[in-house]
What does this fold into?
Amino acid sequence: MAFRLDGKVALVTGGSRGIGLETANYLAERGAKLFLVDVDEKGLNETVQILKEQGLEVESCAADISNSESAQKAVDSCVEQFEKIDILVNNAGITRDGLAIRMKDADWEMVLQVNLTGSFYMARAAAKYMMRARAGRIVNVASVVGMMGNAGQANYAASKAGVIGMTKSLAKELASRGVTVNAVAPGFIETKMTEAMTEEAQKAVLSVVPMKRYGKPAEVASAIGFLASEQAAYITGQVVVVDGGLNM
Ligand SMILES: NC(=O)c1ccc[n+]([C@@H]2O[C@H](COP(=O)([O-])OP(=O)(O)OC[C@H]3O[C@@H](n4cnc5c(N)ncnc54)[C@H](O)[C@@H]3O)[C@@H](O)[C@H]2O)c1
It folds into this structure.
């Protein structure tokens, strides 16, 4: 039988579309209550409306996770609504690609600020509640690019490598309190993020993926869901790679 998450409260950042939305659906199908956080207020409201029409228990907060105060408020607001936070999925992320020698300071800084610093703000805020509850699951969405590097993505690769280092450090700090911290590292997944790649770049990617196809958001969501479950209680500080064999 599939694992259940009945009664669990899951906060998913970047939950209004792509991997975040797919993960939200996956967790809700197993019984979790959802708290979605996204900087795109319009997209978030539309998504929440659709999920509510499906009969799901979902609340939300439009917030920019790269702002320390907003991140803290988002987590506090989840706890105000649902009285706790059991699962944090740090999924929100952005790209601003370009070759390093031409990369603008703003593009370097923004990607680091959202992907790494924002994930840290959210994890720090959630960890305080989880430590008190002596239970919790934090799943950070990294990327294989953070392990392998990628031309044109020095900022993104650095941010995702940082997420992996942060994951392992938090895992060590929180293990004795019953809180696990893991990362999922997707390869190339069919979402708006990969749609933005040029046809040439897409061809180059598929030529090196042993499975010769993109992954689906649902294939990432199931790995995140497992790490968020009771069944993964003895797994912490790990990076689960979901990439069709790209990085092995
Ligand atoms: N698509 C891929 O191939 C791929 C591969 C590896 C890793 N990832 C990672 O998976 C995660 C989700 O990617 P996706 O492809 O679904 O992307 P996406 O662009 O479809 O969705 C990202 C979501 O995050 C939100 N967001 C962006 N900045 C935010 C901020 N500052 N505060 C709050 N929300 C914010 C966006 O509004 C959007 O809803 C990202 O962390 C991405 O780096 C994606």
Observations:
- The longest strand covers residues 179-186.
- Residues 13-14, 16-20, 37-40, 43, 64-66, 91-94, 114, 118, 141, 143, 186, 188-189, 191-194 surround nicotinamide-adenine-dinucleotide (CB under 6 Å).
- The chain has a mean pLDDT of 97.
